[in-house]
Design brief:
This protein is an alpha/beta fold. The chain has 9 helices and 10 strands. 36% of the residues lie in helices and 31% in strands. Strands 1, 2, 3, 4, 5, 6, 7, 8, 9 and 10 form a 10-stranded mixed beta sheet that branches.
């Protein structure tokens, strides 16, 4: 059926273009993120500043939550959800010898990882923070017994070494001042830092994109992996485990999505 449809559309290019345009303008039909366009290096600062507050949009939280609730339903029923399974595996593997582990998730959005940890029976003292007031309000509605704060990942108000584990929850890719965010993650961590679902490129420099996320224009950064790992080391984080969610590599050039687990080196 797909082959027949493709053949018909190839015979009518104008119809194909109109259909493609229609699909691209329906949120979530092709996925969470659509309409990627690389930003020229000379325009990175301008576009980053223009779009730096995109994730504070009130349009994003409920749209994201609709997708997350489906994943949580699957996860609670015992089905595999790769991004959840990867995080839980990473946390299970940490050699933490305390009776109650304190965890901060930076960029927690609507706080759904607190539910993931509850399903996985991890028993953590979880705190979530996000710089979007709309996301935090939704998190507080969904999980009223959990602590949530409105915080900027580049200027966290928590004291040094406050949390046993700090998770950078798939937010670093949307933060133009990502080095400052890495430094802040390292600062408030007492034992470990996890950079979850980090898009990296191999054999090429950092790549900046404009894209539509849940129908809202945002910036997304794909990090040169060796440079990213150098930044981790710069802030006294020792990489102890890497989990690969996806990878594409051809002749040394490609991309991957990984979760990096780091141990904080005592000063």
């Amino acid at each position: 059926m797909k082959i027949v449809l493709r053949s018909i559309l190839n015979r009518f290019p104008n119809l194909k273009r109109r259909l493609r345009s229609w699909i691209d303008n329906i949120p979530f039909v092709r996925g969470v993120s659509t309409k990627y366009a690389a930003i020229h290096q000379n325009d990175v600062e301008l576009q980053s500043n223009r779009l730096r507050d995109s994730w504070q949009s009130k349009d994003i939280p409920l749209r994201q939550r609709a997708l997350v609730d489906k994943q949580l339903l699957d996860y609670r029923s015992g089905k595999r959800v790769d991004v959840f399974d990867t995080m839980v595996r990473a946390l299970h593997a940490l050699p933490i010898n305390v009776s109650r582990v304190s965890v901060l998730e930076v960029g927690c959005s609507s706080g759904f990882y607190s539910e993931v940890f509850e399903i996985a029976k991890l028993g953590f003292d979880y705190t979530g923070c996000d710089y979007s007031k709309a996301f935090i309000e939704l998190a507080q509605q969904r999980y009223p017994s959990v602590c949530f704060d409105i915080e900027d990942a580049t200027a966290l108000k928590y004291a040094n070494s406050t949390f046993d584990v700090v998770i950078s929850g798939c937010c670093l890719l949307h933060i133009p001042d990502f080095e400052v965010a890495i430094a802040e993650t390292a600062r408030v961590a007492r034992g470990y830092a996890i950079f979850h679902r980090t898009p990296v490129v191999l054999g090429q420099p950092n790549v900046f994109y404009r894209k539509q996320a849940y129908g809202v224009e945002t910036v997304e950064i794909h990090f040169n992996e060796p440079q990213f790992l150098d930044l981790i080391a710069k802030y006294r984080l020792d990489l102890i485990a890497t989990y690969t969610l996806s990878e594409s590599l051809d002749a040394g050039v490609g991309s991957a999505n990984r979760t990096y687990v780091c141990r904080k080196i005592a000063q």
